[in-house]
Design a protein that fits this description.
CATH superfamily: BB2672
Helix content: 10-25%
Mean pLDDT: 94
Radius of gyration: 18 Å
Strand content: 25-35%
Low-confidence stretches: none
Oligomer: single chain
CATH topology: 60s Ribosomal Protein L30, Chain: A
Shape: globular
CATH architecture: 2-Layer Sandwich
Structural class: alpha+beta
Number of strands: 7
Distance between the termini: 52 Å
CATH class: Alpha Beta
Number of helices: 4
C-alpha cells in the first residue's frame, strides 16, 4: 500500500548574521518533511517490516528529494545533507528507522546531490510538536567540520500517535564563521595517518 501522506512541510531558514557579524555567505537550511500514517499502526508486533518498507520508502525518498532539490535550485547547490524520522507514541522506534534506513529511501537523495558520504540521521519517538532534529554533514567530505550542522523544527500537530514524520535536510553553505579546524588537522596533530586514522 502506498504512503498515506496527511501533509508535507517545507521549511527554509537563512542566517545572515551570526555571532554579531554578517555572514560572508549566508547559511541556508532546507527541511522537507512528510507526515504519514504509520504503515504498521494497529497491527501489534510485526515481524517482517520489509513489505511496507518497499511500498512506502521509495515514494517518500523521491517526494522529499524533489522538494529539497526544487527549493535549493539544483542538487549541485546542496552541500550538507541528512535525514530524520520521528514515530508517534503508539509506534516503535524501529518503525521510524525502517523508513529511512533503506537504500530505497536514501539513494534518491544521494544520487540527486551527487553525494559520496553516508546520510547523517536521527530516528526517535515523540508526541506532536516534539523537536525534529536533522543532523547534517558535508555530502562529499565527512571530515569537513564547517558542515557539522543540525536543522531543528517542529510540527504542531505531528506526529500523531499513529503517524511518522519523515524528513530530509540540506544546507547551502556551512557555519558562517567556522573556526574550529577540520578532522584532518586533528589527526595530524595527534600523530595519526590521515589516510588510515586507526593507525598510530
Amino acid at each position: 500500500m502506498p504512503a498515506q501522506i496527511r501533509k508535507t512541510l517545507l521549511n527554509i531558514e537563512t542566517t545572515l548574521i551570526e555571532g554579531g557579524r554578517t555572514a560572508p555567505t549566508p547559511l541556508k537550511f532546507i527541511a522537507a518533511a512528510a507526515v504519514i500514517r504509520n504503515p504498521w499502526a494497529g497491527m501489534g508486533f510485526v515481524e517482517d517490516l520489509k513489505p511496507a518498507i518497499h511500498d512506502v520508502a521509495p515514494e517518500l525518498g523521491a517526494l522529499l528529494t524533489e522538494m529539497i532539490i526544487d527549493a535549493a535550485g539544483g542538487g549541485d547547490k546542496v552541500e550538507g545533507y541528512g535525514k530524520a524520522a520521528v514515530v508517534g507514541l503508539d509506534g516503535e522506534v524501529e518503525h521510524a528507522s525502517a523508513l529511512i534506513h533503506t537504500l530505497r529511501f536514501g539513494n534518491h537523495y544521494r544520487t540527486a546531490v551527487g553525494a559520496k558520504t553516508y546520510l547523517a540521521f536521527t530516528n526517535t519517538r515523540g508526541p506532536a510538536n516534539c523537536p525534529i532534529m536533522i543532523p547534517l554533514m558535508d555530502k562529499n567530505d565527512e571530515g569537513r567540520r564547517s558542515h557539522y550542522l543540525t536543522i531543528q523544527f517542529a510540527i504542531p500537530d505531528a506526529p500523531a500517535a499513529d503517524e511518522i514524520v519523515v524528513a530530509l535536510g540540506a544546507s547551502i553553505g556551512g557555519r558562517p564563521h567556522h573556526r574550529i579546524g577540520d578532522r584532518y588537522q586533528d589527526l595530524k596533530d595527534l600523530g595519526h595517518d590521515v589516510k588510515n586514522p586507526a593507525a598510530v
